[in-house]
Amino acid sequence: MPGRPAKFPEHEMLEKAIDLFWEKGYEATSLDDLLLCMDLNKGSLYHFFGSKKELFSRALDLFGERSSKAIEQKIRSAKEPVEGIKKFFLELANAENHQHLKGCFMGNSIAELSYVDGQLKDKAIANLKALEDLFCQYIDEAKRLKKLQTKDDSRIISRYLLNLWNGINITRRIYPSAKVLKPLIEMQLSILK
Q1: Contact predicate 64/129, CB 8 Å
Q2: DSSP state letter for 42
C-alpha cells in the first residue's frame, strides 16, 4: 500500500520566494533563480504557483498579512497606542544593516512595478493602505483615550505615518545607522502629541 504523498510546504516555499524577490526585485528575479532558491523543478513551480506573476502575487499577500499582524501586535503590546506606534518606528533604527539596505518590500514593489504591472503594483499599494488603516484605527483609539491631543484628522496623521514609513525605508538605505536614524525618527514622531 503506497504511503500518502508528503504535504507540499507552500508557506516555506513562499518565504523563500519573498526573500529572493525582496533582495532582487520582481523583474530581476529569473525563473531559474526561483527554481534554485525554492529547490523546485519548473513543473512543480507551475503546478503549485501557476506562474512567476502568481507566485509574486501570493508572496505579496503572505508578506502583507504577516507584516500587518506583526505591526498590530507591536502596537497592541504597548501600554497605549501612541507608545506602540512610536516603538514600532524607533525599532526600525536598530535593524541590522542588511535589513536597512533591503528597504520596504511593498514600497520597492510599487516603485519597480508602477509602469510594468498594474495589478501587482495595486496589490502592493493595497498592503500599504492596510498599514495606513491600522495606524488610523490606533490614532482614533488614542484620541478616544485622551492620549493624543491633536485636532488633526486621524486619516491625515495616518498618511503622514505612512509617508514616514516610506521615507525612512529609503533614508535607512542611505544612513544604515541607529545613531543617524533614531533622532530623525524621533523628530518626525513629534507630531504625535
Answers
A1: no
A2: H
Q: What is the largest CA-CA distance in the chain?
A: 70
Return all residues near 57 (Cβ < 8 A) that are at least 6 apart: 119, 120, 123
Cell 507540499, located at residue: 8
Q: What is the CATH number of domain 10-189?
A: 1.10.357.10
Burial class (CB in 10 A: 0-12, 13-18, 19+), 73: exposed
CA 19 vs CA 14, 66, 130, 167, 175: distances in Å? 9, 14, 21, 21, 22
Using left for φ > 0, alpha for ψ between -120 and 50, and beta otherwise, residue 39 falls in left
Q: Please report the pLDDT score of residue 9 as a whole number.
A: 84
| Position 6 pLDDT exceeds 60 | no
- The pLDDT tens digits of the residues spanning 15-71 come to 999 999 999 999 999 999 999 999 999 999 999 999 999 999 999 999 999 999 999
Give residue 186's identity as a one-letter amino acid code. Answer: E
80-101 pLDDT per residue, tens: 999 999 999 999 999 998 888 9
Angstrom distances, CA of residue 36 to CA of 16, 50, 96, 121? 10, 17, 26, 26
Distances (CA, A) of 80 to 18, 42, 58, 75, 162: 32, 49, 33, 8, 19
